[in-house]
Known about the structure:
By secondary structure, the protein is α/β, with parallel strands linked by helices. The protein is built from 13 helices and 16 strands. It has two domains: 161 residues, Aspartate Aminotransferase, domain 1 (Alpha-Beta Complex), CATH 3.90.1150; 263 residues, Type I PLP-dependent aspartate aminotransferase-like (Major domain) (Aspartate Aminotransferase, domain 2, 3-Layer(aba) Sandwich), CATH 3.40.640.
Amino acid sequence: MTNDQSAVTQLHSGETPEWQQAGVSHIWSPYTQMKTAPLPIPVVRTEGVCLVLEDGTRLIDGMASWWTACHGYNHPHIVDKVTEQLHRMPHVMFGGVHHEPALRLATRLTKLLPGDLNRVFFCDSGSVAVEVALKMAVQFWLNQGVRGRSKFLSFRHAYHGDTVGAMSVCDPVNGMHAHFKGFLLEQFTHGVPHTEQEFHALERFLGERRDELAGVIIEPLIQGAGGMKFHPPESLSRLRQLCDRCDVLLIADEIATGFGRTGTMFACEQASIVPDVMCVGKALTAGTMSIAATIATDRVFNAFWSDDPGGALMHGPTYMANPLACAAANASLDLFESEPRLARVAEIEKGLAKGLEPCRALAGVVDVRTKGAVGVVQVAELHHLERLRAALVAEGVWLRPFSDIVYMTPPLTISDRELDALCSAVHRVMNRWGTW
Length: 436
Ligand SMILES: Cc1ncc(COP(=O)(O)O)c(C=O)c1O
């Protein structure tokens, strides 16, 4: 063993299964200090909205596996479609080859998306979708003979992924990539504008620096991993206007917000805007497997349309447009068509608001906010994160509080009873502990 097992406490009280005992010293977990972190929870099955542990314990998954499992787990329609595809063709390269699941998915996505977001570039994860969006924006200008426009403006509290380009547009100070200053490209950062003064300052900035700027990138309506900060649709619609006036591309990163999470299929709809480029991922395959997409408007795509091979977009992940993932995504879109998901999000929003309201009165709580199927309890300070997580697990719920927030992004199929259990567990645990 390379780490001191005795220094860590198990998050749940069950036995450590044999496979975990054997494998724990060979695995490197995400965002984790491996020496001090407790052993992760051994999940052996998923059912409905629950994670089932080796010892049979069921935890309501309040995070939908990082915003992905929008229809809950193991939905029979998705399972059937992926199984069918697995037998027919699990994978084929996408360079020089087309296949039905990908082309059907691209057609369906472009019909669902606002405006003329008509060209879909598939890739393998959200971070890569952001990389592709940044490359698209930079080359958009180069292909038109405009040099020097290679920087981006992003926002405080932004999070766009963990690859190098994506890291460069995360919040450079408060974000999780602050260590890497000097290694990352330097970009521009502003607060998300709310007031007239802030809009004017941003417009001035865009006007002054537009010859350096390829684009502006934002997570529409909800900034996720940077602290679950919300902004109103108006901030977004006015940002669109500013980008138009200053002729800067607008990239909407809908990787977390897409597919119903904020109450509409895509958050941009609430501001009635069409970004120049949009990134989607996470719930695209409804928590089945990894795929993402970067989608461009006609204007952006047309800048790549020429007789010059050098003007092509030079990107192509090996598992691009993986047929299994496309089958899962198509099946997920079937469910959005046949089941009342968005109506359910409106009910979840009310349920979260009601269920979390009592937290407002607890010591240390500074804000309770909800938007679509996202609920957030923000505290002044959150110490002992691991103890908090363990206490929530003991109450039968799976959540991963971070920074100064306890947040929920449950599957959109969660029942009233399960939602109530989730909110009550959060209230009970936070009440017991007082100030975290
Ligand atoms: C807004 C946003 N963009 C990009 C990403 C990165 O996606 P992935 O983890 O699939 O690389 C995330 C992941 O949390 C995200 O929330």
